[in-house]
Design a protein that fits this description.
Helix content: 10-25%
Number of helices: 4
Number of strands: 14
Oligomer: single chain
Number of domains: 2
Distance between the termini: 11 Å
Structural class: alpha/beta
Largest sheet: 6 strands, mixed, barrel
Shape: globular
Strand order of the largest sheet: 1-13-10-12-11-14
């Protein structure tokens, strides 16, 4: 059986270095609050408001900075703020939904003309783990979530890199639908 840890990826923001300076000030460094399961990734102490035409939600920032700012919401979050966010792999933001980012501490604002997506469910694997599971980068698989509400997710993309730690990421809507709370494993069905 090919099992992988299933983690819930709650709404979050990735910022470029330029965006950090606009929202927090020149030379500002984000505060590493907690390491995440993916090596080198961390949750920051700072939070921002993600504002759309119908409302706003507060979201955590994940570090380190990236070349391009990006907001990852669930479909429920996107509807709440009134944006139509496409389901995409992280980093694929061209033509995605716009929003405004607001720092509630200092009132600084940044308009994003694109960058709001719903992250496509995916599995991070090292090359060794991918070989062990018999899957390849960008392959699409199905995964059975073994929980109180067993669910099979289709259209799960495999992402392979030396920089990854094995884990499947789903958003809060998907976690709630499948009761994927606490430590939950997913079986890769291929």
């Amino acid at each position: 059986m090919k099992e992988v840890l299933v983690e819930t990826s709650a709404r979050h923001i990735h910022l470029s270095a330029e965006a950090v300076e606009i929202l927090f000030g020149k030379g500002y460094q984000l505060t590493n609050k907690k390491a995440l399961s993916q090596p080198g990734q961390y949750a920051c102490a700072e939070k921002l408001e993600v504002v759309g035409p119908k409302g706003k939600v507060k979201a955590s920032i994940l570090g380190p900075t990236r070349p391009q700012s990006q907001v990852e919401l669930s479909l429920t979050d996107a509807r709440t703020i009134g944006v139509v966010a496409p389901i995409r792999e992280s980093g694929d933001v061209v033509g995605s939904a716009p929003c405004k980012l607001v720092n509630p501490e200092n009132g600084a604002e940044l308009e994003l003309t694109e960058g709001v997506i719903v992250a496509k469910r995916h599995i991070h694997l090292t090359p060794e783990a991918a070989a062990e599971f018999g899957v390849a980068d960008k392959q699409i698989v199905s995964v059975k979530i073994n929980s109180e509400r067993t669910t099979i997710f289709d259209d799960v993309v495999i992402r392979v890199s030396e920089k990854f730690a094995p884990a499947m990421h789903i958003d809060t809507d998907e976690a709630n639908a499948s009761c994927a709370f606490g430590t939950v494993m997913g079986e890769i069905l291929a």
